[in-house]
Amino acid sequence: MIRNIAISPKSQCLLFHFALALNILGMVLTDMWVPMVVGAVVTTYLSVESLVRIRYVLPMKKELRELRHELEHARKQVRDSYEQQER
Question: Could you name the domain of life of the organism this protein comes from (predicted)?
Fold first, then answer.
């Protein structure tokens, strides 16, 4: 799930939700049901995926990064205390 990094995840979410609204509006106003339904299904998937990414994936990545930093710090402390005990 690699996205274009030129646009922020929040902007992507807003863009996909706007596209979904336009697809639904197009379904109501036109007789081109098949292309509009396909477009609505695709934009629904993109909207949900971007919303999940903002709410769950990005905060989880941030938390994992912080935990790795804490783990490295704890390993360094254990290594330093072990070296001091050997002296």
Answer: Bacteria
Burial class of residue 65 (count of CB atoms within 10 Å of its CB; 0-12, 13-18, 19+):
exposed
16-65 tens-digit pLDDT: 999 999 999 999 898 888 889 999 999 999 999 999 999 999 999 999 99
In the chain, beta strands by DSSP E: none
For residue 43, what are the CA distances in angstroms to 5, 29, 34, 57?
19, 18, 14, 19
Query: Taking the model in full, what pTM does it have?
Result: 0.72
Q: 57: how many CB neighbours lie within 10 A of its CB?
A: 14
Yes or no: say if 42 and 69 are a contact pair by the CB < 8 Å rule: no
CA dihedral 58, 63, 64, 70 (to 10 degrees): 150
